[in-house]
Write a structure and sequence with these properties.
alpha/beta; Rossmann fold; ArgF'-like; 37% helix; binds phosphoric acid mono(formamide)ester; Asp/Orn_carbamoyltranf_P-bd; 11 strands; N-succinylornithine carbamoyltransferase; five-stranded parallel β-sheet
Length: 311
Amino acid sequence: MKHYLSVKDIDSLPDWVSEARKLKSNPRAFEYLGKGKTICLLFFNNSLRTRLSTQKAALNLGMEVMVMNFGSEGWQLEFEDGVVMNQGKSEHIKEATKVVSQFCDIVAIRAFASLTNKEKDEAEVVLNGFTKFASIPVVNMESSVAHPLQALADAITLDEQNTKAKPKVVLSWAPHPKALPHAVANSFVEMMQLQDVDFVITHPEGYELNPQITKDMVIEYNQKKACKNADFIYVKNWSSYSDYGKVLSQDSDWMMTSEKLGNAKFMHCLPVRRNVVVEDAVLDGEQSLVIEQANNRTFAAQVVLKKILES
Ligand code: CP
């Protein structure tokens, strides 16, 4: 495998999940694979889980790790070709990626959507810039439109927790005071398309995700109806896609509660705002899987890095 940029780079989900679960039971089994190799983690945005789990995964595989908060510490990058660089941007993506490629064997990038320019966000200028000009494999640690490491961790968690042949899984929008990207929801939807699940997406009208991603998946605008008899409810906020990047509603009726959760397991990628997105009783209750999901981030990253190192 050359790069891990989206869920579409997974050639066999059952094999990857099974391999991740084996790595979880013996994390250091392939420590020899990364000996003498270095991964560079470049963050254009904040992180807790992605940063620590990807670092942990690389260490489990015997790799050296370099981390840079590029957004605050790196030079401002120019991505356009043929630009006269006489304004604020000091370095072109062409030189930056070629330089980074000399210092490490794999580069992982986090670069969120701006939520102000749909066309630029969908062009994935940072991730695709690195993929185009770097001479080493690139891993997506959350880009403008995708968070495939999170989606793989979620698939591992579902595999561990599911007891049914075809569970009902709900992706529910929840309120949030800030405009958040679509990446987590997009990759979760794509992951559900690889699974044998009864999948329903629920959100207020105006919060439809990119229809090229949701395709013909079921959308139910009544959250209570959508959540009825669910086995897993994945809660996430995202901003409007059609009215790009806008917060159209902060309706607290959409917050996840114990009543709406019923007997379902609760999932969220974290970080989460308590009593805005989900009430305390859910997060503190036994049906919450959020800590297991975060733990599985290590083994999702580890299976990805292992496949890159092996190829
Ligand atoms: N879920 C997730 O990606 O967490 P961080 O933003 O803390 O990395």
